TrEMBL record:
Protein name (database record): chorismate mutase
Example GO BP: L-phenylalanine biosynthetic process
GO cellular component assignments: cytoplasm
Lineage: Bacteria, Pseudomonadati, Pseudomonadota, Alphaproteobacteria, Rhodobacterales
Gene3D superfamilies per the UniProt record, alphabetical: Chorismate mutase
Top-rank taxon, per record: Bacteria
InterPro entries: Chorismate_II_sf (IPR036263), CM_dom_sf (IPR036979), CM_II_prokaryot (IPR002701), G/b/e-P-prot_chorismate_mutase (IPR010957)
Sequence segments annotated as region (Disordered): 272-294
Span of domain Chorismate mutase: 5-97
Species for this entry: Polymorphum gilvum (strain LMG 25793 / CGMCC 1.9160 / SL003B-26A1)
SMART domains: CM_2
Length: 294
């Protein structure tokens, strides 16, 4: 485009283009809502009921969004617009509430919840993280968001299991310096019909003794841990390529012999979108290993 002002398109012409694009966007959004009506009918016909949230499908869509994205528009702005659209589409399929962990920084928690689940969904704060797990487990279709802190005040994940409330997504999904709504958290809900095995599995592991720093070197990320009287109760994330036996062997090798090792869900690994970053978000996000800290 020429820098000569006489050659530049006029402001009026540019605004007419914006108006045409906005009309296209609006038409496409209405078309999309009509497709959602069809999705509701297809899900009903297949007998799916309860939770309508499909984090595996959403993760696929977001990976493709990263691949095709270009230009000056921040990717997290596209992510936010799209989250409002998709969470509205989820609500069109049936009512649900989002229960927030009241033990977290409440302003950061609400920012995260609104960023990911929009402004039309009803949100409640039933209490601490364990209350969120209990409320979601007793619901039909609700979601919960629990903040991840390195050292937990309580082992809230003990209430999770594969047939009740379980971890289904990790937030934020796009990892970047200075991104908005950046509180580390997990989404929990009851079992999702037809859900594919995510690329990251999560375990509740308990053992007597310290938290060995070398766990990190065995491909195990400690999402959070709680110090019990004589040991550790930890929430561990591993690649889904590792079997439960592999995880057990890796823990023992690192010096943590679990007397409890239970799967409590899984999630699609977040994507690092910072320029020049590796393709995939690496596990081990808490910085230095905490050798023998607990
Ligand atoms: O694909 C589905 O199963 C949908 O319900 C549609 C849709 C969407 O709006 O694209 C909505 C909610 C799900 O979490 C995933 C995707």
């Amino acid at each position: 485009m020429s820098d000569d002002p006489a050659q530049l398109p006029s402001l009026d012409a540019l605004r007419r283009r914006i108006d045409a694009i906005d009309a296209d966007l609006h038409r496409l959004l209405m078309d999309r809502a009509r497709v959602i009506d069809g999705i509701v009918a297809a899900k009903r016909a297949s007998g799916a009921e309860g939770v309508m949230f499909r984090p595996d499908r959403e993760a696929d869509m977001m990976r493709r969004m990263v691949e095709r994205h270009a230009g000056s528009l921040p990717l997290t702005a596209v992510e936010h617009l799209w989250r409002e659209i998709i969470s509205t589409s989820t609500r069109l399929q049936g009512d649900y509430r989002v229960h927030l962990d009241g033990g977290a920084d409440i302003a950061a928690m609400r920012d995260l919840a609104r960023f990911y689940f929009g402004f039309s969904v009803e949100m409640e704060t039933p209490g601490d993280a364990a209350d969120v797990v209990g409320t979601v487990a007793a619901s039909v279709s609700d979601l919960g968001i629990v903040a991840l802190s390195e050292r937990a005040d309580l082992p809230w994940w003990r209430g999770l299991g594969t047939d009740g409330a379980q971890i289904v997504a990790r937030l934020p999904f796009f990892v970047a310096e200075d991104r908005p709504a950046d509180l580390p958290a997990v989404v929990i809900c009851r079992p999702i019909p037809g859900q594919e095995m995510p690329d990251t599995r999560v375990f509740d592991a308990r053992w007597i003794g310290a938290l060995p720093g070398s766990l990190m070197n065995s491909g195990i990320e400690v999402l959070s841990f709680f110090r019990t009287g004589d040991g550790v109760d930890a929430l561990l994330a591993v690649s889904a390529d590792m079997t439960e036996e592999d995880v057990l062997a890796a823990c023992i090798e690192a010096g943590a012999e679990p007397d409890v090792l239970r799967p409590v869900g899984g999630y699609a690994a977040p994507i690092d979108i910072d320029p020049g970053a590796e393709d995939e978000f690496e596990t081990g996000g808490w910085g230095d290993p905490r050798a023998d800290e607990a």
